[in-house]
Amino acid sequence: MAGHVEAVGGNVTQLQPGDEVFGWCDGSFAEYASVPHGQLALKPTNLTFEQAAAVPISGFAALRAVRDTGQVQPGQQVVIIGASGGVGSFAVQLAKAFGAEVTGVCSTRSVEMAGNRSLADLRRALSPTGTLVLVGGSGGRWFMGTGRTLRAVVVSPFVRQRLRSFFSKPKRTDLPVLKELIEAGKVTPVIDRTFPLREAPEAIRYVGERSTQEKTVITV
Q1: I want to staple 12 with a disulfide (CB 3.0 to 4.6 A). Which of 8, 70, 116, 196 is the partner?
Q2: How many domains does the chain have?
Q3: In sequence order, which ranges of the chain are alpha helices (DSSP H)?
């Protein structure tokens, strides 16, 4: 979410009414939201509120996948599958910002399922000691879409390749990192479509159809 601070609690010193902020919270489909101050940071100066609202949570997931789990270093070759998606569009830019040679892979609308590759297919695309980072639940209908991730966990100890997975959790310390990269022009959130607040149910249906690319935003 992103917006203006309306009021702050008595113990809050880092933010004040009128500040332009972004972050995350429950219940953000609203004109007003109550947010723990640790889940907010000053909005990047070069973003609109709509763009800033699109940064968490996908930006967190991409940052952790590229920086922490993938440990991407300058000069490495990185392939991002689902490069046009909410997380993928951030991951491409972050990997490039960290100095990697990046290839983005995405499917056309007519062959969408072609991008949903099996674990064996993904391993064949790796070097013998390459790293695979699986983000979220995708790659099959078993175990709520986490079948591929579970197989990677089982196989990883027996192969030279590093097969890694995680489920992203928001971290307050990652907001300033993303803010700095955004203000430096290295990362820009990309919005696919916006919906007014009154059309929030339609926005959820749109995202649920999996036809969206980049980020979908609800505006107030």
Answers
A1: 8
A2: 2
A3: 49-53, 58-63, 86-97, 119-124, 147-155, 174-183, 200-208
